[in-house]
Each structure stands twice: as C-alpha cells, then as structure tokens.
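Hi R.,

Here's the chain you asked about this morning:
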Amino acid sequence: MSGDPTPGAPRTAYRPEGLDDAFSDGGAQRTPDAQGTDSALPAIGALGWLRWAWRQLTSMRVALLLLVLLAVAAVPGTMFPQRPQDPAGVAAYVAEHPSTGPWLDRLGFFDVYASVWFSAVYLLLFVSLVGCIVPRVRVHAAALRGRPPRTPRRFGRFPAQGAGTSDAAPQVVAERAAAVLRRRRIGVPAFRVDVHDEGAGTWSVSAERGYLRETGNLVFHLALLGLLVAVATGQMLHYRGQAIVVQGTGFANVQASYDTFERGTAFDPADLVPFTMRLDEFEARFDPETLQSRDFTAHVTVTEPGQEPEQRTVKVNHPTVAGGAKVYLQGNGYAPAVTVRDAAGEVAFSGPVPFLPRDEVYTSKGVIKVPDVSGDQPQIGLDGFLLPTAVEPAPGLWRSVDPQPEDPLLVLSVWKGNLGLDTGVPQNVYRLDESRMEQAVDEAGDAVTLYVRPGETVELPDGLGTLTFDALPRFVALDLRHDPSLAWVLTFALLAVAGLMASLFAPRRRLWVRATPGAPDEGPGTAATVVSAAGLARGDDVGLQPELDRVLAEVLEASMAPSTASDVHDDTTGPGTTVPDTTGPGTTAPDTPQEGTT
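And the predicted structure, written out as tokens:
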C-alpha cells in the first residue's frame, strides 16, 4: 500500500510544517528516557475516574440535561394506561397488542413512575442538585461575611462615572458617602460599605449590594430540590379512591368500601382514618331554558372517630375534609331501586343500581345483574336506559327531555344464561358480558323490551320472574384524596418562583466614591476636595448610572458649604447640589451614556 514504511527501515515521526510551538522541539523526534522508553502521562486510576464522574454529574449542564430527561421519561406515562390507575386498561392493551404489549410491560411502561429507569433519572437529578448546591452555598456564605472590594486606583474604564467638588474635608465626604450608601430606601436594599484611608489625605468608600441575586438563585435551586423530595414523599404516602354513595346510604372509610383505590408504596391501608359519611340529600339545579347545570349540592353527615356527627355540604370545587382526606363531588346521577323475583317467587335482587348519565338531560345507561336465582334457573341480566322525563315522539321511540325526574321510565332488554361472575375475571359493573347469555325474544322473534315506571311491576319473559321499580333515589360519585405533601409542594413552588424572580431582577452593583484633596486655595470659591465616583454592575444595568448620580448628588449636597453651593448652582438641580464635573479625564456626564453602556 502506498505510504507504508519500507520493512526494516527506521520509523520517523512526521510533523506538518508550521505546527512547532513552545511545547515542541522543532519537529525533532522524541527522545527516550534513561531506560530507553518514551515518557507517558500518569494513569488516572479508579479514584481519578470517580472524581471526574462526580464533577460531570454535579455540573449545571448535566443537571439541566437530567431535568429535560426526566420530563421526557414522564411522557410514556401519558401515552400508555398505567396499572395503578387503570389495571383493566392495561390488560386490554396487552390483549390487543400481543407482540409489543408484553415487552412494554417488562420495561415498565405500564407503571412509569415506579419503573427502575424513571427512578434512576429522578435520583441522579437529586444527587446532581445536591452536589451543585452545597459548594455554592459555602461560597455564598463566605461572600456574605466578606468585605466589599477595595476601591480601584482608576475609574476611567468603568461604565458608570461621575465627579464633583466639595469644600468639606475628604474624610467628611467619605463618611457622608458611607451614610448615604448605608441608608435603605423603599424597595431598595442598603449597600454594604467599607471606608478606606488611602493615605496622603485621600479617603475612599467601596460599597456593594445585590447579594440577593445569588441568594435567590440558591433559593430557587433549594426549592427545586425540595419539590423533588415533596413529590417523591407524596407518591409514597398518598392514597386516592372513588366511591358511589346512594341517597339515604352511607360510606365507611375502609378500602373495601371504595370502588377504585390506589395508594403509595409506603402507605398502609390500615392507617385509613375510620370515619363515616352518609348522603342525606342531593340538590341539583338546572337552567329552565337551556337545561344547563347551575348547582350541585350534597348534604352529608360526617362522623369522625371520637366526635359527634356533623352536618356538612359538598359542592363542585368546594370539597370537605374528613379523616385527613379531601372529599370532592365528582359526579352524580340516578340509581333506580328495583326488586327482582325469580321464577320461584324468591327475591333474587333488591336495591338501588347506579345508572351513568350520557347527556345533558341525564339519559342514563345501566345494567342489573341477578346471579342469585333459585334452582337451575338461568341467571338474569337486564340492560337498558333510564329516562328521567320520558316522552314518546314516535311509536316505540322514547327519549328524555329534562334532567329532573318529572316522568321517569326504565327501558330494559332481558338476557338469560351465565353472567360469567364466577370465572375469576373482573367485570365492569356497568357492562353486561353477553358471551354466555341469550337475549329474550317474543313469539315473533323480536327482542323483548320492558317499559317500567316507579311503583309498577312487570313480568319477565320466559317465566324468569318479575321486576318491580320501587323508587328513584340519586347517587353521588365521591373522590377522596389524601396527600401529605401538597402543602410542601405549594410552599416550595412559591419559593422557587420568588427565588427565580430575585435572581432575574435583583441588580448586583458596586459603587466607589473617592475624595481627594484639591490644589491649594487660590481664592474664594476654590474647591478643597475633588470627589469622583464609579459604578460597576454584573451584566447590563440601565439603573446603574442614575443610582450613581443620586448617591453623588446627596453626598455633595450634604457636604457643601452654602457659599460654594451658590457658585456652582444650576437650574437643573436642587438647591445646594453641584453638577457633576464632565471635564475631568475619564469621566462622563451622568445623563450621557458612556460608549459600551446602555
């Protein structure tokens, strides 16, 4: 191959022309050391690699990268059903996707927030923030105890400058400047001030403020760290459950009373506070013209351990608190109370059955399952609708025209067979499994439909028994949530916003004032002290020059004799003030921005 060295020929190091520098030997070959081997850098070692990894992890760019990665890792939790909230949805998804579903389940996509990879990113972000904050807190604490920087020798290159003259002694001018800078103004914190005797009669003052900027930055990061801890604690110690309570019945705060219940990994259901809640009455108001809902109020009686029963109300967006949990009114509807007797005349089912509203006039759908029948009779399933105010616009066509129960009607189809409740597979109580059942038909082969009003009793087809529509109570859907970290999450969120605002808007400024003895007196009106000032800010700060002008004007006003003030009085300033000198070298007029400043 072209370019390969000739076998046996000595190897030479090639260095392109022009690359020689102070660290090269002009292109000469590297010389071996005393043992005849080339010198090499020392190995980093395991400890060196650990230090390098820690520096990378605690850097700001890695912390930001982990924060973005955490947000990306949370996305699958919104795309796929989660097992703690919707186990039936997870089972349905796996059944519908036999190839990808099991793999997604193994990788934790159906329980994202408890997965190994999400927890790893969460913990790495926590460690990164701790490692980033602790050194900065030490540095900031040392800066708070330190003194302002000494006055620079020259002011000519600072973005904000000013000058003036005074007949007071330099020490008096410096002390007056220190007093002005220490004085706190409304909404503006005072400066930290240090007075220096520079010798030869010259006195100077150095002042600094704006430590709130770094304090706000640290508060923001500490609040973010607190949010991570609070959210993690809430996920471990929270519980949430939903329960349907029918008017006239009660609810006990035990896990078995919930229709759905989810909890954190560190929460024990035995720790539930055993309070009870009874739904005494439910009021619903609708607009008479548009039929839009206007108000829902649940009147309940709450009995907590060791206390007397208490009457309370639960409204939409106005929950009540019981047993440390907030109780929200999430929904409502009708629960027709029916009694079903089997062919032997025995009561096979009796009680209210919630029907779920489907539209604004509360057309509600529900299922009545009757598994406990006598003998070898097939089980009964009734599937249909409840119409609160039923009308028949066409023969055989019924619909509801009002959400209030003015003329309620149950419209049901009848099924017989095996309900499938003994298979061990959980079922939706609002859906009828028709795979093992047969729909009842009349002699013409048409499906049998029952129309039942309150107080009526109808015969079931095929001699299955009877159905009685007893009453029409209402039900409410309650959502109970307990999360001990909510107050902490709110507190840390507010602290994060406050810290961020302070870090963005609190200006970091340094001001210096120097009072130098002037030339020997040459006559009346000759200034005895030359006062110069300069300011520096971190970043662009349009308020730096105005603040410097204010401080300089107050210093000169207080330290100037009346005769001198009358000689230099100008119409644009207040009585007893001087116009900052704009003719001195390295100074600019207060209202004239210097080149390179805003």
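The mean pLDDT is 83.

Let me know if you need anything else.
M.
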